[in-house]
## 1
Amino acid sequence: LWMDIEGSELEGLQGASGLLERRAIEIANLEIAARPETRDREEARAREMGRIMAAAGFQHVLDWNDTGGCCRDHVFVRRGQ
């Protein structure tokens, strides 16, 4: 699963709940925007996405593509893989 949907990743992840529950996804890359003016809101959204992924059996393995504070991608892998 690859999500880079300009601030709607949490909603997209919530929409993918059936795929997560069916274990149809093994690896996920979620971009998380972190613009200075919305940093607190985006950090809360990032924590919620992490909580959803952990509850679905994923572990966070990597952050990458840090564009100087504007956004970065978080990679999750299903535990046990």
## 2
Amino acid sequence: MERAEQISEVAEQVLMELTQRNYEKICEYYNANKDAIVSDFYDAINRLITLTKEHQNSFCKKAVQYVAVSYLLSSTITKSYEFQLSLMSEQYFLDPIESCIYWSPHWLFTDVDKDWNMLFSRVRKEIIRLHPYELDRIWRSYICSFYYGLTALFVAEHIKAAAISGGLEDLRLAKEVSFIYGGIMNQFVQLDGLRTEKENEVFSHKDGSEI
């Protein structure tokens, strides 16, 4: 068996155990602290909408078509585990007026460092002269599939209600608004949608010209 296959086989067994343990622990913590956790997310979305309103009023940002939650793979290196929350026009990530903030669900990532230490320690017992970089691909895959997967479930449950509560409908919106989740500048999945009655509205600059 090739070395990479041996590493993968041992690591996958360790990560299966960690996944089961962490899932139960995270669910227990979430159920005990749900109000505070959800409130924090609502506050973040409210800040984003307030920022976007300023951008539409002062910088003529176009109608919002996408409410996006993007995980940042670079945050697995910095260990910040941040997500970018964005309101984007029909131009998607090419929207020239960037309306975004950063949010981290720290309650989800409490045991990430412990997971890494456990993974490296257990695999090193089976694989001689193991180097951390040999686990990089497996580790990133675990973060994406487990932690970012759980975040997706949380976001899917709360993003639309949080946006509406935070005043999304007070912004200039496209005919249809999509709530999306995925890697920044990468493939997204649509979590929800909102049809509006704003496609026929005309908004103007202060000088009278149409936006």
## 3
Amino acid sequence: MISHFIANATAIYQAQIQNGFVWFDNILHVATGIAFTLLLLWILNKKSLQFSTISTVILIIIFVFCLAVIWELIEFGILRLFTSYAYSLNLYSSSVREASFDIVSNVIGGIIILPFAIKRYLK
């Protein structure tokens, strides 16, 4: 989240929007997917829940996907309810295509951390 505000303050988003591709936002979403995965693994560890490898992989992907969709719906809601606020902070997806890339970037982040999850949390 802090990176998002730094990107706004330094006009990184504006420069990318003018170039037609917002790559920095995708990097932030990959990092968020990693954070979502680590959150789920922490919860599983705290609750001492054990699943098979394939079940854990599927659970991680579904968890990250669902949180990403929820986040994009929240962004859409903020855009509709607080339009000027959303535009002032670049807190919105400019299209369904961009929102889809955000969701995919989150899932990629979850997939990137899977080898760590399998090695560390699965017996």
